[in-house]
Amino acid sequence: MSLTEKLIEQSKRPNGFVGKTMLGIMNGAHSMMARWGLSYVDIANADTILDIGCGGGKTIKDIAKLNAGAKIYGIDISKSSVAATQKLNRKNIAAGKVTALVADVCDMPFDDGFFDVAVAVQTHFYWPDLARAFRKIYRALKPSGSFVLIAEIFKMDYHMPRYKTVAEQRELLFKTGFQKVELHGTGKESCFVCTK
Do 92 and 64 contact (CB within 8 A), yes or no? Predict the structure, then answer.
């Protein structure tokens, strides 16, 4: 396995020393983009929110800071990511505001209609079955719930075997059942805000 392949694998599923380093880098590098994307959705103070691919937990921490009454869940397939999220958000976890657990987007342990908002920042291009993941997210959202999908466009083109373009992803989101799919972008980044 080449160095590039090893780094990509660490981005997908961080572990060990290199994984901890990657999580720190991702927390810093993705924070501004996450805040930009989240500015397009209204999050109520009492909403139940899911961060899919929570990584090092910075997005969860930022959401909790802005929405004191929200209940926030984070999932990630990496045990190291969940541990980092738990460490960064320990006060909110102790207060019962945040829960982080190891789970796959295609096999989430949540009831139908559980979340008001689901967020995915810089992660969906690693999901092996995007169509199935979108269906599972749709299922977990309440009626009129929102799904916010934020990513750098070049990473989608580089990592994804299918649905490489924002146009293809938009079509898939509509096909999944979302009634409204808004696209916001800077030319380098895209943010879909999808309403069930």
Answer: yes
The answer to whether 177 and 145 have CB atoms below 8 angstroms apart is no
- Say what the pLDDT of residue 39 is: 92
In this prediction, residues 44-56 reach a mean pLDDT of 93
- Report the CATH superfamily, name and number, of domain 3-195: Vaccinia Virus protein VP39 (3.40.50.150)
Q: Could you give the angle at the alpha carbon of 105 between the alpha carbons of 183 and 102, nearest 5°?
A: 130
Instruction: Calculate ∠ Cα 151-84-20, nearest 5°.
Output: 80
pLDDT of 169 reads: 92
Instruction: Return d(Cα 87, Cα 160) in angstroms, integer.
Output: 31
Query: Which of 20, 37, 18, 70 has the alpha carbon at shortest distance from 149?
Result: 37
Domain extents for the chain? 3-195
